[in-house]
Structures are given as C-alpha cells and as structure tokens.
Amino acid sequence: MFSSDPEFRFLLSCCAVGTPSDNYERDGRSSLDWQRLLRLAEHHGVTPLVYRALRDVDAGIPAPIQGELRQRYEGNAKRNLVFVGELIRILDCLEAQAIDAIPYKGPVLAEAVYGDLALREFYDLDVLIRPADFARASEALKSLSYVPNVQLSSAQQRASQRSGYECAFDGPLGKNLLEMQWAIVPRFFSVDFDVERFFERATVTDIGGDPVKTLCAEDLLLTLCVHAAKHGWVRLCWLRDIAAVTQLSGLDWDRSLAEAKDLGILRIVGVSLTLAVRLLEATTPDSVLQKIQADATIPKLCDLIAVDIPESEAYSTESVEYFRLMLNLRERLSDRLRFGARLAFTPSTGEWDLVNLPAPLFPIYRVVRLFRVTRRLLSARS
Asked: Are 217 and 244 in contact (CB under 8 A)?
C-alpha cells in the first residue's frame, strides 16, 4: 500500500501492535530519510512509540536521531506527569461539588490502554460530564483559575449545549488546556451516544496512584472510532489508540457491535478496525471481520483514506469533500438525512459572530446557517 514511502512504512512497523524486532530490519534502516521520519512521527503523534521501538536497536540509526528521539520522549513523559497532576486537581475540584466526571483520552487512555503514561502524546485534558452539570462545573473551575476561552451569552451557551459537545477552558498551564465535554461529537454528526449509560458502565483505573473513572472498554472503542472518523483518520495516533483497545482482554465484541448497530456507526467502526488491522497489525476475531466484510463499502473507503494518511492534513469541516466523506460513512439513509439536515440548520459560533441577535430571535440563526452552508457549497462547485 505504501511501497513508495519507506519512511511511512517504517513508521508503521514501529507503531504496530506486537511488532517483532526483525520488522525494523526488513524495512531497510540504512536508506531511510531520518529527518522525514522524525517529521512524520511528530505529525502523527507517535514519537514515543518510535522511540520505544528503536531505543535498543544499535545498528543503522544515526546517533543524532537516537538522541533527538530520546529527548522528545523524555520531554513528553515530563509534560504528561504535569498533566496528570492537573487532572487530579480538576477531578478533586469537581468531586468536592458532587459533580461526576469521567476523564476521556489523555493520561487515562495512556495508562488504561498502553500501560505506560509516557507512550502517548496529549496536549490537553478531556473530561466528560453530564450535560446538566456544565454550569456548576464551569463555576467550580473558577477556583482553579479556569475560564472558557470563548465568552458566550446565556442564550448562546444554552444553544451550544443543545447542539455542541464541549467547551474549551484556558487554565494555569496554558490556553485550551481543558475540554469539558457533555457529548462525544456535535449533534449534527447524528451519533447520539447516551452519556448517562457511560456513567453507569464506567470502570476505575489508577492514575499516578489515584483511582479515577474511565469509560468501559466497549464504550471506549466506539467513542475512539467516532472521534477518529470525525477527523477523517488523518493522524496515526488515533488508529493506534483503537488498535490498542482491540488488544484488551475481556473486550465484549458482541456488545460493541450491537451498540454500534443501534447507533448506526457499524461502518465507522468497520473502517476504523480495518485500517487498524491493515496498517498496525491489530487483531480482531474472525467473526468480527466477517461482519465488517459484509459491507462492501468499507474496503473502498479504507483504500481512499489510507492513501492520504502519510502526509494528510486536517479536513476543513466546512468543505464539500468532508461533507461527502461523512455521508459515505453512514450505513443508514436516516442517519445521512439527519446529518445533512442538522449540518444545514444547526448554528454555531460562526453564525453568532456574523450576526448579533437577541435571545428571542435566536431561531433566525438557522436561516443564517442555511445561507452560509448553501453559499459554501455553491462556491465549491463553481
């Protein structure tokens, strides 16, 4: 698949699940462009995994490259430890106000799935709360010097909670440090996870000696697949997360697939798992692969997505290309129709910044949104 891209093939071998050491020999270390490999590792957020794979390999790797990988790995490990301390502060603050919270991704994923805080890169903290708790959580976080990075009016905040999924906070360690989430994706994606069930099924993991809640393996798999799909699978780290979850003992595949079917995301899960198997040697039961292969659209989508992964850039979520991909990823006509309708009529900060309307006139923002979306689509065709 990537026969003409030796650096990316080598990167895949370093990140693959359970890669034996002879894979590094097979991929021809001596002819690699090592600076490009470093750039790819950074772009895809997998530098710690590359360092772990190569730290005990003596031959064929330039000393400056080994030194650079070690420096980046150690820097990531130190930053992650700081983030763990900040996460515990945030969770303690919320607990003091009787606000239930589930850390999502970040250090919890590193510990629960990779078994090593240093092996995953992250630059913010994601915390899932119940929608009804957002106002109290926001007020509680003021005591830790956290403030929303976008100031919304009361009407805008209410609209954001209905149609959005998160609020980013600036904090003592920097801007956009904390993302407080009450859903997994915006409403227009038409993937209606039941957040209350996340809390009912949550498990506990240990982070730096502190027990914290985390999503159960089945919910984690589905949310990671949807998160990767939302971004078009443009970074290898998201696929590596999914590949790692597939290796967890006790993962209930039947429950995961049944839930995916109910949510209308079987194709999204199928594409995610197929890419993880193809690129990162993830293992899934034959029964799961058979269900995935029953959808003839999945291999075609994987071929299109995989070609763009090595040097891929983030999609513009307002582009026709992105709109088409999101439609093709849904197996049910009803979900495609809901996605199109919600995308066309769900206002966001773009509309609020364009026109300042008083709260009683907020329904007019739907018309403004439709006008902007239509104009973009017509502009893309011309």
From this structure: no
Which tens digit of pLDDT belongs to each residue from 272-305? 999 999 999 999 999 998 998 899 999 999 999 9
Res 48: pLDDT: 97
Structure-token match 């400056």, residue found: 64
Residue 289 CB: number of other CB atoms within 10 A?
15
Cα torsion angle, 76, 81, 86, 90, sign: positive
Q: Which residues pair with 166 in a beta bridge?
A: 181
- What's the topology of domain 98-215? Beta Polymerase; domain 2 (3.30.460)
Separation CA 66–CA 20 (nearest Å) = 19
Of 123, 126, 128, 110, the residue nearest 245 (C-alpha): 110
Q: Give the whole-angstrom CA distance, residue 307 versus residue 283.
A: 22
For the cut 50, the answer to whether the pLDDT of residue 258 exceeds it is yes
Give the separation between CA 234 and CA 237, rounded to whole angstroms: 9
Distance CA 286, CA 292 (A): 10
Task: Give the CA angle between residues 283, 184, 227 to the nearest 5°.
Answer: 40
End-to-end CA distance of the chain: 34
Helix pair 253-263, 266-280: axis angle to 10 deg: 130
Find out whether 188 and 342 touch, Cβ atoms under 8 Å: yes
Q: How far is CA 329 from the centre of its chain?
A: 16
Residues 6+ apart with CB under 8 A from 209: none
pLDDT, tens digit, 9 for 90 and up, residues 7-48: 999 999 999 997 544 455 445 666 899 999 999 999 999 999
Tell me the C-alpha distance between 313 and 145, whole Å: 33
Domain ranges of the chain: 98-215, 217-314, 320-382
Distance CA(114)–CA(49), nearest Å, equals 10
Distance CA 127, CA 124 (A): 10
Tokens 């079987």 sit on residue: 266
Is this prediction's pTM over 0.90?
Answer: yes
Tokens of 141: 């976080």
Query: Using only C-alpha atoms, what is the Rg of the chain?
Result: 22
Half-sphere exposure for 29 (CA within 13 Å, toward CB): 17
The three-state secondary structure class of 230 is helix
In the DSSP assignment, the letter for residue 316 is: P
